[in-house]
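cache lookup: miss for this entity combination. No prior model stored, computing from scratch. Input as submitted by user K.M.:
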Amino acid sequence: MTIDVPTTGRSLPQLQPISFIDADGRLTDTPTAGLRIPGDRTLTGLYRQMVFVRRFEAQVTHLTRQGRLATYPSAAGQEAAEVGATTALAPGDWLFPTYRDSAALLTRGVPVGEILAAFRGDWHCGFDPNEYHTSPAATPLATQTLHATGFAMAAKLKGADAATLTFLGDGASSEGDAHEAFNFASVWQTPTVFVLQNNQYAISTPLREQTNATMLADRAAGYGMPGLRVDGNDVAAVFAAVTAALERGRNGDGPTLIECLTYRMESHTNSDDPTKYREAEEVEHWRQFDPIDRLEKYLRSTGAVDDAGIEEIAAAAEALAESVRDAMNREAEIDPLELFAHVYAQPRTDLAEQQQVLEAELAAAGRA
Amino acid sequence: MSVEVDTSTRTPSAPAAEAVTMAKALNRALRDSLAEDDTVLIFGEDVGRLGGVFRVTEGLRAEFGSTRVWDSPLAESGIIGTAIGMAMNGMRPVVEMQFDAYAYPAFEQIVSHVAKMRNRTKGRVALPITIRIPYAGDIGGVEHHSDSSEAYWTSTPGLTVVTPSNPADAYALLRESIASDDPVVFMEPKSRYWMKETVSLPVATGPMHRAQVLREGTDATLLAYGPTVRTALDSAEAGAEHGLSVEVIDLRTLSPFDDETVSASVRKTSRAAIIHEAARFGGYGAEVAARLTERNFTHLSAPILRITGFDVPYPSPKLEEYFLPTVERVLDALESWDWEL
């Protein structure tokens, strides 16, 4: 007698990360799970945006060292995952980012000053989520993966043609919420794409102390959903994988987990000291897999870009950096009384009384 | 046994009255909310086919289908976290935490996201979520089935915390909670699920944010909510036999606190005590005693007392009777005041 259980429908990701363009800018012969390399025009656009976000991250990190921002978690080195995944979204889709995804917010069209409001200390979320179809960046790890799942469930119930994409990291993959989101999304078959940026470190803790699994993408099988392991520094692979996964979701075929292998080139935030937990040689080693260099080589080899094109993109990135400096050099107007404005829909006497206290203090100090 | 309820604010020309339990009144509130608003969704552990372990959602899946009422995987953080996403996408989720202590895995989602989303987005994203939590003891429950967790929620800005003590309020307050654009932690006293009251549903019982004077008195004010309202009413009755005129107020909504109603009563009686099952230290009663003292000090003849569970973990069933605040303990507290003042 045997127990009657399903014996089909389980598949594990291929061991070799999906990649189209190798570190030398040449096409790989890696199996790509049926995915196709994006065309040169798409790739040129992705290249342009990666150059922008790298310049953005460098500028913001610099301004943070100058004290213009309270703290900043840079995604330098992770441009391919940030830009490739976010660019794959349709305007009606929703993005559920983390604190390290400013590059994704920039790619989504959120204005610089509104992205950085949180890190400058102006307000927790500086942009209108409904305008950019983008959730406030979540700081508590993996919590946003459940929001993405619920949002997608509502879309499915409404019969809307929207999918959701959420980022999480290798550290966040250890959180219970990540597990719960993978499971809920798969049970409910929601149109959700989980883009797991495995950047090798959770602040200082290396991947080998985070998991004993061969790869994080393997987890998908345990939830009954497809998992893909992608070279996260190959924007062509990320874009193709995420585009296909979003399409799967919109077609009613449920969620996908995509692990992007990448590396956090900068420290966790400006207040971190990476010399305590990793060697400079390791950082140098990863530099050879740089996502921008390889795509530039590839696009030059196909003739999609030339020196003039590269220079034009670099100049535009400089203009972006200048707009970042301008935005951060303009102090936001902060109204202390706004502390009380958005806590409840229904006004409360307690808050009104406390607001009066602050108003009186401000008046006494000649500030109101 | 039925609670004495002020029916003066009830809807006129209501349908015929019948004896309903609090569980049934809650069930009817959910049903009417589902019928009235297509964006209302109910999901949680065992709330579909079974109708919930307390049968509060009984029959709703059959009536509204599994796209409105369904069983979720068993994970409380997952339930609240996905409810957040649904609310961001225009839905009005009503979710059930199966028992008080089983809401704790969802603590982060409730405290860090549900409570804060409106604030962090400057009012651009509202989360009209109702989180139903059966709470408190006196049901002979094994470990982790009898906690009174209200102070965790009331000490979190951004949350509204509501708890009915009788079937009519259970109906009216749940309807209002679901309709609210603020997230509501709706705490249902388990020991009162099967109490019956003769009531015509639907019923309106006065605004959610107002406390209600259930019994008028002139010598002392007993403040209670949820499971202890019965204790307060019984104590007032017993006090009357001792010649004391005791006013009883059902707080109904714990956050915000109805200072107007309560302070008016305390100024009239000059003595007050708050009764709750939860432990005393740092409990909800501490806030009540502090704010009533701050606002009414010169009107008070005696310190405000807290009649609460002991500062120990909720005990096993055979020890509950020693832990829970009883009528005797309330009377002892009333007697402890210096009545010459």
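stored under new cache key. Chain A touches chain B at residues 94, 96, 123-125, 128-130, 135-136, 138, 140, 143, 145-155, 157-158, 164, 176-177, 180-181, 183-184, 187, 338, 341-346, 348-350 (CB under 8 Å).
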